[in-house]
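Hello, quick one for you while I still have it in my head. I'm working through a protein record and want to make sense of it properly. Would you mind checking whether the tokens look sensible for this chain? I owe you a coffee for this, so here goes:
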Amino acid sequence: MASGGIVNIRRDVEDKFYRYRMPLLTTKIEGKGNGIKTVIPNMADVARALSRPPSYPTKFFGCELGAQTSFDEKNERYIVNGAHDANRLRELLDGFIDKFVLCKSCKNPETELIILKQGRSEDIIRDCKACGERTGVDMRHKLTTFILKNPPVKIKKGKKKTGTGDAAAGVGGGGDSPDGDVSPAENGAESDDELTRKIKAEAKDLNDETTLAKEDWSADTSPEAVKQRIKALEGGLAGVSLAGDDEGSDDDVNSPYSQLGKWVEENRDDHEGDTKTFLVAVFKKAEQLGIEKKHKSVLVLAQALFTENVLKEIPEYAPLFVKTVTSEKHQKALLGGMERLVGLSYPDLLPAVPKILMAFYQVDLLEEEVVTQWGTHVSKKYVDKETSKRVRKASEPFLKWLEEADDDSDE
């Protein structure tokens, strides 16, 4: 993927914890004179995040700009004739997303394009997997002619309800509903003895660094103590009230989960070395929002608290996670947060995945069975499928270390 960062599919949504994300569109100008053209190196990756054929947004650009387009799908090369600014194409991509991806009812990108035939006429419909609504696209747009001539390919996703008699072809939307498990063989899993030996050696160092007591926080969370200890952190955020269901969703920009994540990020660097007081404040904030026991809170905290220095931060923040990770579901959410951290926010951390898992394991935040099951089953629950594969591939040395350690104990 060409470098350019990751952005929300809906770029009008500034929430970092918005689930649906895509690579930032990049461009490259080639040729000169009448032969000048704009190549989009990562169009395939962008389209994959939107779950649309890459030819659709490329052709959309051509329709909007009045320019010829060409695509070489085998080599993932997508071209718009003429010299076009990257920002201009990103704005046009927003238009494509609005017209051909987002549900018109709930504005969720988890849609599937289907073609409905009624007599001699054909309509293109966005079938939303999030809210269930079916909304039509503007059939006056020139792209619709191209889509009808090049219909999307139906992707089988395991057990699903069959259609209701419509003659339809469809392609999955930009959501993260699980689409079945992928075995290690399908992942292209390979053993890595050298990395495994490194993990074993580093495990000894991690033992000393990550041994933390599971503290009783009852004294810290008493009303009087908390009032004094977190006054500077709470500031004007005290007394925030929530409307609606306190369960919420991490997709909703106004959900308690988004509020918690934003609050943590805003206050993360202001505790002046008093980490314990800060962690108490974080827990109290989650309590205030009514989500301190929810597994989605663990997902958000993993994204908001950890940075590229995650290996140093895990021992510091472990007491908070020991307090909040209380079930297998919470452990899976912690792993999901780690997937987003290294797969989307800090891709350079991928080689450190075994060390990160070891650090979590050493402070009893992850159980062997949960990690093993997670490591051998690719899922789209928290990130896209390709990212999920990369993270699990990187985790192989730790999984192998677990397996060998278990064999040793059996002997």
